[in-house]
Design a protein that fits this description.
3 copies of one chain form a homotrimer. Chain A is α/β, with parallel strands linked by helices and 657 residues long. Chain A folds into 4 domains: 322 residues, Alpha-Beta Barrel (TIM Barrel), CATH 3.20.20.80; 55 residues, no CATH class; 187 residues, Rossmann fold (3-Layer(aba) Sandwich), CATH 3.40.50.880; 51 residues, Golgi alpha-mannosidase II (Immunoglobulin-like). The first copy, chain A, contains 18 helices and 24 strands. An 8-stranded parallel β-barrel of chain A has the order 1-2-3-4-5-6-7-8, surrounded by 5 helices. In chain A, a hairpin with a 2-residue loop joins strand 20 and strand 21. The longest helix of chain A is centred in the middle third of the chain and has 29 residues. The two termini of chain A are 24 Å apart. Chains in contact: A-B, A-C, B-C. At the B-C interface, helix 8 and strand 13 of B face helix 2, helix 4 and helix 11 of C.
Chain lengths: 657, 657, 657
């Protein structure tokens, strides 16, 4: 398929006289898609019912005339003031019990039925008006669900919604009391309307209570998105429904939302995410301050490739310095191009830059665009132009979907909620744990698919990794049984029932014929008290005491004699959170057993296999000779000696696979 | 007397069919006491007035049949939902003005008269039902007063209660205005109902105002406890009334509550307390991560031995990893036994483990028990069994109460409130100051008694230490006059009147014939700017400028010439917060003058003299030969070379006393 | 003119019998002024309308009889309880939406019209009663506006006041929508009463919205102060109206408030400010813990000399340890005298110590006075006496106003608001930036005037520095055009329009004939990723990408080739935040071009030229020989070899100017 570029554009921010010129410049740059409209409610409906769609039609017409394809956003992330004043109880309530006010964005409560109806109304009006416009080829629902931590709200609407959801799930208060273990601390209820939202308690609330609230809150996001998707599909046939997800956002189940989308997309801000959402220390942040974490984007590319069954975009690609991180450096020259290619290497259909022209006003005035506020070309413009040019040259080469990767990582949003509710040790974070495994695999040169725990298909993967999974589904246990590849489980996987209790026979709760081992005790560790496992590696943060039965074999032990890695057939259980050294030790051995070719990459260079080609990308500050990996021949793009910020594409046959 | 073991048990958490087997295993393990019932209100009274005590009677019968003795808890720490819904204003209010909600525990306001009546009602019903049951030998009132910082509440009930309390104390607004110095900043009131609670002020409230609020709040805890104790005593003759205190909890006056108890007990979690409540730096926490602070438990043993005149228990002893600290490591093998013996060394009647079986559900599911959730024996089970066995062998040896210790430390809860209200320097914390002295004394091998400032009896102590005392009582000044031992006062002692004002003649406010010296100025110091006092020692955090009269002599001066240690007769005044080196210097000299034998212990080994025996305990990671201290002969328990986590008991005569 | 000393006194805190003796001791000490009354509302009006001014009259009479001059404070910083209870909505509301309560001070909302009327009423009553009393020579309005961050309040009164203010400013909602860029995120309003206060939003509010709120809030302080000043002027002819400002307080525009005063004063607490309000690291704080930052006081002296056109005082001078910083050390001997002389070196008319006698009660009981609570003389007393003595000797010498300084720094409160609203990088703080320039100039031995951006007069300055200015006024651009001296602009100066938008032609927004250069991109930097500019210097925190036109020349470039310092005529633009090394490099070159004599001072020694004399002050811990600077001859005060904490005054001719 054709890989394309796009851009985000706000016609309502600029004089209409500039639109045609903007469109012409976009087309000349080689852009295909333009996303518009997603924050424009106050212009689309200045007063209740007084729709003003003409300007939007003219904007779409203008873009269409320039042969640009429009992705039209529903404006529901920014309800206008008149609407909020009509129904002030639609505003979200923080965990502190305080109502959040109008004045920025995402000021709505997913549980509020009245607001949901309003969203359906405006979506319907837009879908009817533009659903069959030839220039409109796709829709974006809302914008960045959960941005600014907006999934959870503690409003009266959330409380009554949660009560109804619980009634549906448990049918009787007694069933709920039993499931949650409410006999503990006399927390029993006799009616669903007694259930409170789990906040402002004297000490921690019951984890089972919080877990159900997290499930409920995720379901409200799904409901909200589906309501819009259904209307769009009914009135805009043949157009793709897209949402733009965020990085390191686990508050709702993206697989569930993604199931109602045609295309998952996400907003990729490598420098902002490194500064703001990385667990790495200052040395790492300093080192990659202008390049971004070498694995963060790749992880999310792989994740969102999975959430809508393979079709995915980058909807917003950082084009220069942004405005929202603690520090906002300029990207190193070439990085905007590299980030774009990293996305295509992972199978993106489209990379869309945010935004066309830097807005000189309001909250994002310090966020770079492809153009500066004075319409001159910013640094990112040239890099986008180069990518457009290269895409044109490599078009047939890339006309393929990526095939199955080397390794599958099983990923699960509810596990993220569970360990946030009950970290047990300060550093325990599900994303961090999974991402540690992902980084280690990628440093071995392996390509990764993310597999949802809720619908796992492990067949065909030489190596499967399942870290920190909250609880087993029957499906997943069956898949593990059937899996022919090497499977690495743990730490902490299967340590709970779905009711957030310790399983009857102790974790990991697998049938003995699958794994004849149990976790008799766990401990969480200060960063300065790791447990030594091999000469070079340790368990950090989390360690389990494993007791093996006769069918399981201990492969590695900690220095104090406690089993660390246990094996039964093709199944392996790891009883702690490995540091990168132990991680490398364990994963490279398993990869070897799985028949995979591994490489020992430095921190800056990364590979991604994509069908018949391998992409090499250099996030580092020094050049690297790919010949050291055994690469020979002529790259399709770039050079064998890969300079900082450069990209090289090679046929797999020349890359030693 | 016989020293015994116990355990905490929740029959309501388990099928009744398991109770008898549990009881049998407890008895076989060598346990004597079982605490039950303290969180079971929702099972004891599922709806108002619908008491269901039958299950509890069967549980008590079952335990009694196994010859176990029951400590029955009143369930008032966990009011059930129906009760909270009846009187929602019983919920506590935070200093942020926000109401805390149902959903965990301790969700009540000590000032709320309505809730107090409810507590009296359920206590009366239980006392009538079980007060004379032969299996019930003691009662626990409520559970862990102040846990989760629940002493202070800023509710309407607290406000009106406080106003009435002030009216009683001051009789007229003018008297209050004068006592508080309300002329300052025009804070004067003309009626008691004008008094606000001291929170949410623009800047700090008047310290005298806050101090009275702290006294009031402490009194409410006393009132709450006494109401239950009185009912129990009336209806359950001959049974002991116990409460289980916490570690490093100064929010209410434990001496006042303890006066209404027969037995003080406390809940000892060495590893959790080290991680969560220690002033020591990371190196110390790393070093003792699996052993606990070598002095923290001892301090509280000595403290709670004092709060109810000698009779005391450990009600909850950590048996393995817990769930609530930032990190929750597993104890080093042997530490559960060592902690148990440390308690007996300080005179505990009973050490009771928390809990029998790890609950697989709800908030404490990650808290170890003696049994795992699947009823298999956890690591702590074996250590408890060993202690039970050893207690059986040493029974007659331990059949004594500890005699007077070497040193008395005067301790005072109001001083804790005062310096929390007015630290003057960021690090100034009363507990930290007193504990620094305690640790230094213990490192010298000395045994310590804690003496309440409110009822001081200094007679017979060779050495008395009075650090950081808020204000003098006439009693205490008289005791100091009469004391034949060496007395060390300061820093900051007597620096306020009871109205939280600077005394007329400047601190320390003692009569000139007792101490002819005054503090003319104080300063608080950054950690990096200590004041050098001797070649090896410094004042840190807090330093006073002392001016001596003719009757006082300067013993030590700071490098800038300011007197640091002043002497008059057997009284000594220390004008700063000594670091451990200066502390050792000063205390060992005083101990020498007092005729006490001191030793120079390393960080890990600790001694406790108890009647005719000395206990040695090794918290450290390396072995220590007690012969280095001059010990000879055969220990009653353990070896002369004491290994990590080991305990040695020796006759005093063989230990060089 | 005669330079004088004063003191702050609270007759209402002490028995009337002591007043005369206090007055006699003040006079004997050499004090001229006594400030009284500013917190005494509850004594002046114990109940509504029941004025009790007699005691105050007797106090004034007593002071007057001792030939002391009284500065009488209005008591409006401490409204009494009965007044607050009458109108509870006068209480301020925090950004958290919670009402602040009675119980300390400054518990009022500047927007509240009812409270303003009350303040006018009490001011009028006092002005009528004492306005022509011969002992009353000046008035202080309120006390320390903004202390405890009290400028901003989020009350209903503030909301309606803000709406009216916006209506006045913008006249139509459309104009406001355009100015703020409310089309962004659908923030448009259709009526002024829809405008919310900018707090508790889901994410950041529109910076233009916040900026107007900050302007509004500043205006309320001005209104509040002017209301009192007008009444005083009407009823107390010939008396000076003074307010006492704070250190590092930018929340309201002190130039605007100062315009309604005869004399600006400020409250100078060198040790407290170093601990609590310094950006310097621990090493610096440790080093100057007992001396104070060598530049902090000087900066504010220069600032408040500017806010009321030259006449200024220190109203509260730290006399010893204070009570409110994280650590409160005692000043090094001599520092109280040095601080006093630093003020006179910058042209202070009067230095007034806070306070006469340390209060033994209430919030400030740990704040030293000239006397201790027992009326004995504290350390500061002797230092004040020495200053009084020296002033007497040097009186004629100092009888001059300081002439124009070497360098003008343009300072602007709105710039402080702007960069607090939009720091873009965590460390970006306007005060810190300006103060970095100030310190560098002072380390070069230069004397500085602060010039308001709102009324700039640059004429006659050899060197003008304009760092981080939010936006240009026409006046300032005209002044820059006309300026004959060297002008250094940037970083970030002129980067916004007054509507908080990026200027049309990109920053710095100056006409091309003034500066033919634009900033095409900016970046903010982690502290560990500075950009190298010269061999010794770097840009830290903030860096701009400059693009020069043909009329501008690049003087310095960063190592990556980006212009760092650009020159056009006598104008220079600096494209980043220089560290002290680069700062020194750039400023010493410019000073040279400007014909100024610079010196290379160490961290502890500072100079201040004042008319025909130069003051040298030694904040450091080692002595310094002023002969090294070329000083010769006999000082008027002090020695050529200046010891720590010492002051030397020299005729300029002998100091090499």
């Amino acid at each position: 398929m054709q890989r394309t570029l796009g851009v985000c554009y706000y016609p309502e921010h600029w004089p209409e006289t500039r639109w045609a010129e903007d469109a012409a410049r976009m087309a000349a740059l080689g852009l295909t898609f333009v996303r518009i409209g997603e924050f424009a409610w106050s212009r689309l409906e200045p007063k209740r019912g007084a729709y003003d769609f003409d300007w939007l039609r003219r904007a779409i017409d203008t873009l269409h005339a320039a042969e640009l394809k429009v992705v039209l956003g529903t404006p529901t992330a920014t309800p206008p003031k008149w609407l909020v004043d009509e129904m002030p109880d639609m505003l979200p309530v923080g965990a502190d019990g305080l109502v959040r006010k109008f004045g920025s964005r995402r000021h709505y409560d997913f549980s509020h039925d009245g607001y949901l109806e309003e969203c359906k109304r405006i979506t319907l009006a837009l879908a009817k008006a533009f659903g069959t416009h030839p220039g409109v080829v796709a829709w974006q629902t809302d914008n960045e669900y959960d941005c600014h931590n907006t999934t959870l709200s503690y409003s009266p609407a959330a409380r009554s919604g949660f009560q109804a959801w619980l009634q549906q799930k448990y049918q009787s208060p007694d069933a709920l009391n039993r499931a949650w273990g409410n006999v503990f601390w006399s927390m029993e209820v006799s009616d669903f309307d007694e259930i409170e939202l789990p906040h402002l308690t004297v000490t921690e609330a019951n984890p089972a209570h919080v877990m159900d609230f997290r499930r409920y809150a995720s379901d409200q996001v799904v409901r909200f998105n589906k309501a819009q998707a259904d209307i769009i599909r009914a009135h805009s046939p043949g157009r793709d429904v897209i949402h733009n997800f965020m990085g390191r956002t686990l508050a709702f189940d993206h697989f569930d939302v993604g199931a109602d989308l045609d295309i998952s997309s996400w907003d990729s801000y490598p420098l902002g995410f490194l500064e703001d959402r990385s667990d790495q220390g200052d040395a790492w942040k300093q080192r990659f301050a202008r390049a971004g974490d070498p694995d963060f984007q790749a992880f999310h590319h792989d994740l969102y490739r999975a959430t809508s069954k393979g079709r995915w975009w980058v909807m917003e690609q950082q084009p220069g310095p942004v405005n929202w991180a603690p520090h906002n450096p300029a990207p190193r020259d070439g990085m905007v191009r590299l980030w774009s290619w990293e996305a295509f290497a992972h199978g993106a259909e489209t990379v869309s830059y945010f935004r066309w022209r830097q807005a000189p006003f309001a909250q994002e005035q310090m966020h770079a665009g492809l153009l500066r506020p004075d319409s001159s070309e910013a640094e990112g413009f040239d890099e986008a132009a180069r990518v457009a040019d290269e895409l044109g040259q490599l078009d047939t080469v890339l006309d393929e979907m990526p095939d199955k990767a080397d390794v599958a990582i099983v990923f699960d949003y509810p596990s993220g909620w569970a360990w946030e509710i009950q970290p047990q040790g300060r550093e325990f974070d599900y994303f961090r744990l999974v991402f540690d495994f992902y980084r280690a695999l990628r440093k071995l040169g392996l390509s990764v698919d993310i597999i949802p725990a809720s619908a796992p298909q492990l067949d065909g993967y030489p190596l499967v990794v399942i870290p920190g999974l909250f609880t087993w589904s029957e499906n997943l246990v069956a898949e593990i049984r059937d899996c022919k590849g090497q499977v690495l489980i743990g730490p902490r996987s299967g340590s709970k029932t779905s009711d957030f209790a310790i399983p009857d026979g102790l974790p990991p709760g697998l049938p003995r014929d699958v794994l004849d081992m149990r976790v008799t005790r766990i401990e969480t560790l200060r960063a300065d008290t790791p447990v030594q496992v091999t000469e070079t590696g340790t368990f950090q943060f989390w360690r389990e005491f494993l007791e093996t039965g006769s069918d399981a074999e201990t492969i590695l032990s900690a220095d104090d004699g406690v089993p660390a890695l246990v094996n039964q057939g093709n199944l392996h259980y790891l009883g702690g959170w490995p540091d990168q050294a132990l991680m490398r030790n364990v994963l490279s051995n398993l990869a070897k057993e799985a028949g995979l070719v591994t490489r020992d990459l430095n921190d800056g260079v990364r590979l991604r296999r994509h069908g018949g080609h391998v992409f090499a990308l250099n996030y580092g500050a020094s050049s690297f000779d790919l010949a050291e990996l055994g690469w020979t021949g002529t790259p399709l793009l770039g050079e064998l000696v890969i300079e900082p910020s450069e990209v090289t594409i090679m046929a797999v046959s020349d890359a030693g696979y």
